[in-house]
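Worked example (supplementary).
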Amino acid sequence: MTEPLLSCRDVVVEYPGTGFRARPQRVLHEVSLSVRQGETLGLVGESGSGKTTLGRAILGLVPVSGGTVVFAGRDITRLGRQERRDLSAAIQVVFQDPYSSLNPARTVGDILTEPLLVAGVSRSQADQRIRDLLDQVHLPADAARRLPREFSGGQRQRIAIARALSRSPRLVVCDEPVSALDLTNQTRVLDLFIEIQERTGVAYLFITHDLAVVRRISHRVAVLRRGDIVEIGDARQVTTEPTHLYTQRLLLAAPVPDPRLQAERRAARRRLAEQVTRSQTGPTNRPPTMTGVGITGGPATDGPATAAAAGVPGERA
Amino acid sequence: MSVSSVEPVVPTPTPAPAAPDGPAARVGLWRRLLRDRTAVVCLVVLGLVVVASAAAPLLTSADPSSADIADTLAPISAKHPLGGDGVGRDVLARLLYGGRTSLLGTLLATAVALTVGVPTGLTAGYLAGWFDSVASWLVNLVMALPAIIILLVVLAVAGPNTYLAMAIFGVLLAPGVFHLVRASTSAVRTEAYVDAARVAGLSDARIIRRHILPVVQAPTIIQAAYMLGVGIALQAGLEFLGLGSPTQPSWGAMLNDAFTRIYDRPALILWPGVALAVTTAAFAMLGNALRDALDPSRATLTGRRATGGPATGDGRAGDGATGGESGAVATATRAPAPEPEGGRLLVVRDLRVAYPAPAGTSTVVDGVTLSVRRGEVLGLVGESGSGKTQTAFAVLGLLPTTAIVTATGIHFDGTDLRALDERHLNDLRGRRIAYVPQEPMSNLDPSFRVGSQLAEPLRRHLGLSRRAATRTALDLLDRVGIVDPRRVLDAYPHQISGGMAQRVLIAGAVSCNPDLLIADEPTTALDVTIQAEVLDLIRSLQKERNMGVVLVTHNFGVVADICDTVAVMHQGRIVETAAATELFASPRHLYTRSLLGSTLENAPPRGPYPAAAAVDGSAP
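After joint prediction of all chains, the assembly is encoded as:
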C-alpha cells in the first residue's frame, strides 16, 4: 500500500483566452499532490485559486494541458469518452450546490438508480441498493419516491452523497459540499462523510474555502493560491501552526466565535499585515515572524493558543 | 365518435416529440391545464374542429367538389345546411373537408419544423464547438431568406401544391425551433446535475434523453402550439392566392371563391373566416395557457426558494431532528424589555410578517422585538429560514407587497416608519437608513459605470452638483480602501472583483452619512481574507460616524468579530438577546447552545491518517 490511490504530477490546466489569438489563461501551474486509500486530502483556497479546476481536471470535466494524473496505477490524464465512462465506478463527485446538482424533474429514486442501471445492474438489485444507500445517509426509505424539492439543503446533499456512493467508488471529489448548508447541517454532513469513510475506506479530495471545515475532515491539507500549492502537510499542523505566510493570513482572517479570542486574532492579523508591508518596503528584507498569536482559538483545542513559527519562509508568489 | 381510426390527425394539440417523462409530471401538466378555463375552452374548440374534419363523411353526404349549376348561391336549406357557393358546391361539405386540408397542412409544417429544429438544436447546444458554429451559421442563413418569396418561387416551379408548400414552410420555421432548443439546452448543459451525470458514466445520448429533453420539451410544446396557428393562417393565405392544390377543398380556397361573390352573397365569406379565426385563435391561446402550465422556470423556482424566499416550510423542515427544540420556544431575554427612550435609534416592537399560503397564512417573523442604540452594532443571527432577513427587510420597508406586516411599532429616531408614505420613506432610506446587501454584484447595475451609480444618490439626496458628487465619490472610494479610486470610478461592475464591489456598495451606503446601517449578510459571498477587511471597514466607519448597525448573519465568527449585542433568531422568533461577550461566555437558550456547539472553529482537528492496513481490511 505504498502506492497512493491518486497522484497528480505537475498538473497544468489552461483555459483558452478570449478573443482572436489570445494567450491561454493558466489556472493551475504544475500542481502535484497525492491521496492515499481511505485518506482525506483537504484542498483549501480562496476563489480563483484553482481548487475547483483541479477537482474537475481529475474528474475529466476539464482538459489537462500538462502533467499527469495517475489513479490506481493507471494514467487517466487524457481518456476517451468510453474509458472515462468505465472509470466512473471508481471516481465520483459531490458538488457544492445541492439545489442544482439534482435534476428537479426526477424523483430521488430515479436519480439514485440511474448510474446503477447504466452500469448494467438489474432493476431489482438497483432498488435494493438504493434502499441501502438511503439508509447509509440516514434518509427514510420512502425518500426514493419524492422529488428533490421536497427536501431541505442538508437532505439534498445527503442524496447527492448517496448518488456518489452508489457504485462503491474508491475516490470521491467533494467540491465545497457543505458550503451551502446551515451550521448544524454542516456538522452533521461532515460527520456522515467521516462515518462513511471509516466504514468503506473511500478516499476524499475535499475542496473547500473554509479552514474550520477542512480541519474537521482532513488527514492532510494542501493550500492552493493562484494555481500553486503553497503549503501541504498534516491537517493539524497546517490548520493550527501554518508555516507559509499566506496560510497564516488565511487562518487569521477566519473569525472565531469568541469575542475575546477574535479581538486577539484581529490584532494578530493586523500585526502580520504590518510586518508584510514593512518587509516589502523596508530596507531589511527579513522574513516576518509571528509570535504570541492567538491562532488556534477555541477552548476545545488543547495546547497553548500560540503559533510560534520562527523563520517563516517568505511568500513565493 | 370513433375518431382515432378515421384520420391520422392527433386529437391532442401537442404533437411534439415528447420524451418519455415520469407519469407524475404528465398528470401534473394535464391537471394544471384543465384548471385553466381558457385552456379548456381552446381544447374543446380544437377537439370539435378535429372531430368535425375527421368525421366529415359522417356529418354530410355531399361531395365537397361536385358542382351543381342549379345550386349556385343556393340559400340555406335542408339539402345545403350552409347554402351553396358560387359554382354550386355545398358550403358545409367544403368547410368540413377543408378543415382536413388545413389541419393536415399545418401539422405537416410543424412536424417538419420540429424534426429539423429539435435534433439539430439539441446537438448544437449540447456539443457546442464546431457543430454549433456550422449549424448556427446555416440557420441564420435560412432565417435571412424571405419566406414568402421562397414559397412563391417553389410553387411557381412545381405547380400549386398545398402539402409541398407546407413542408417547405416547415423548413423555414425550423430555425426558430433550433434557436429555442439550442438556448434551453446550453442553459442546462452547465447545470451541476448534468456534470454529475457525466461523472456517473452516462452516455451523451442518455444524458440528452434523460436530463436535457425534459427541459427543452416545455418551450418546444408551447412553440409548437403557436406554429400550428401560424401554419393554418399562412396556408389559407397561399390558397387564397390560388397557390394551393386546385382540386382540394380548403378554407383558403373558399375565401377566394367567396371573395369573387362578395357583392352577391357576403355571407359566404363568413364560414371559412370564422373557421380560420376560431382555430388560429384557439391554437394561440392554447399556447399561452401551455406556457403558464408548463413554464420550466416554475419547477426550478420552487426548488430554489428554500435559500432566500419567504417560504418557511423548508426552513422549518430542517435536516433530521434539529437539536432538541420543542414547540414552545421560550424567550431568554436578559436585558430588560427595551423602553422607547430617546437614546434608541431603532425600536421594533412585536413585529410579525406573514405570507398568504394555501392554508391560511404562513408566519415567517413571529413577534420580534429589538432595539438599536446610536453607535451600537446589533447582530441578528440565525439559520436559513429563521426570519432574520425578513425582519431586516420589514424595517427597510422592502418586503414584497404580498407580505402582511403588523407591529406594535417600528420607530426610527422617534418617527413611526409605518406612518410614513412612500415618498417620505424613500427620503429616509438611503439618506438616514442605509443598506448593504449580500450579493454585491447583483446590486450594481451592470450597464452603468460605478462612478455614476455612486454619484446618483449624492446628487439626489444631498443636492450636489455633478462635479462635487464625483469628487465626493472619489473621496468615499478612497475612504473604503480602494487603491485606485479613479480607475474604479470609471469601471463597469463586471470589471471589478466581488470584494471591491462590496466596498463600493458600502461607500454608497455611507455616502449620505446615515444614522443606521442595515447589512444583510454583507460578507457571506466573499473570501475570508476579504471578509476580514470588509468587517474592519464596517467597524471603522461605524466608530467614525457613530452609526447604529443591524448586521444580519449566520456566522458566529462574524458576530464575535463586530457585534456589541446579539439577537438569536429561530423560527421567526428571537430566542435570546444578550451582549456579545455574555452570549458567547454563557449562552442561556438551548437553541443558542446547540448552534454554538456545532461551530467547527472550536472543534479539534481530525487525527492523522490511519495505518493503511486497517483501512484496507475494512473495505467492502
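Two points are worth noting when inspecting this output. Residues 1-90+171-240 of chain A form a domain with the Rossmann fold fold (CATH 3.40.50.300). Chain A has ten helices and ten strands.
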